[in-house]
Design a protein that fits this description.
Blueprint lengths: L6 E5 L6 H12 L2 E4 H14 L7 H9 L3 E6 L4 E6 L2 E2 L1 H4 L2 H10 L3 H12 L7 E5 L2 H5 L5 E6 L2 H14 L6 H17 L12 E4 L5 H16 L2
Parallel strand pairs: 1-6, 1-7, 2-6, 7-8
Antiparallel strand pairs: 3-4, 4-5
Helix pairs in contact: 1-10, 2-5, 3-6, 8-9
The structure holds 2'-deoxycytidine-5'-monophosphate.
Length: 228
């Protein structure tokens, strides 16, 4: 069974710092990384490619079940390339459109069920860091260490805005904040696998914390919970 491999789950809303924290944590430990949001994003992109509407449940489930996606780690620049049906979609994956489409398809229970085993298959020795919304509550409920990262919506919007500006994109802080709040609302209030901390998760509010502080706290928890 997959859960004999140690799993650290990191859940939280967009902009909470999960992505960076998980990448750094997996690299430090030498463990595998599951970016579960990328799976939902790829599904949104696949739907657009195959002209499947985001409310066409049977077609989305079929697409999810047969999703031809590969995650190819590139150790040279610490980037994971995402290849859908033979095409590199790593760039398209990170757009706001892909994030919104992901959030819509991710609200459909049968779509989540179709992607469940694919996510569990990432749990390979020596261990897995799993980044998402329901890693601790649904996908890896027996994980020995569960983290829930959060931050105020305003701070998360500022971080996303700075990223977009840094990449040369245009956006207004208000529109980024509106998007974040809409995504929170969809992710937290959906009936299936809503975003929430697992009962046994350690909640870290990163509003006032830098990435190094967060990693420091997590490595203390790793030593306490997972040391042999
Ligand atoms: O983490 P992210 O921004 O790449 O996730 C994109 C969307 O996918 C997010 O709005 C909600 C959904 N998602 C989910 O429902 N469950 C997960 N485990 C990961 C992401």
């Amino acid at each position: 069974m997959t859960e004999q491999v140690s799993v650290i789950t990191v859940d939280g809303p967009s902009g909470s710092g999960k992505g960076t924290v998980c990448k750094r944590l997996a690299a430090t430990l030498g463990w595998h990384l599951l970016d579960s949001g990328a799976l939902y994003r790829v599904l949104g992109i696949a739907a657009a490619r195959h002209q499947v509407a985001l409310d066409d449940e049977p077609a989305l489930v079929a697409l999810a079940a047969g999703l031809d996606v590969q995650f190819i780690a590139d150790p040279a620049d610490e980037v994971v390339r995402v290849v859908l049906e033979g095409d590199d979609v790593s760039g398209a994956l990170r757009t706001e459109e892909a994030g919104s489409a992901a959030s819509v398809v991710a609200a459909i229970e049968s779509v989540r069920a179709a992607l469940l085993q694919r996510q569990r298959d990432f749990a390979l020795a020596p261990g897995l860091v799993a980044d998402g919304r329901d890693m601790g509550t649904v996908v890896f409920p027996a994980a020995p260490l569960k983290i829930y990262l959060t931050a105020s919506a305003e701070e998360r919007a500022r971080r996303r805005y700075n990223q977009l500006i840094g990449k040369g994109g245009g956006a207004s802080l208000q529109s980024v904040l509106d998007d974040i709040k809409a995504r929170d609302d969809r992710d937290m209030n959906r009936p299936v696998a809503p975003l929430k901390p697992a009962d046994d998760a350690v909640v870290l509010d990163t509003t006032e914390l830098g990435i190094e502080d967060v990693l420091g706290r997590i490595s203390e928890l790793v030593k306490g919970r997972l040391a042999p």
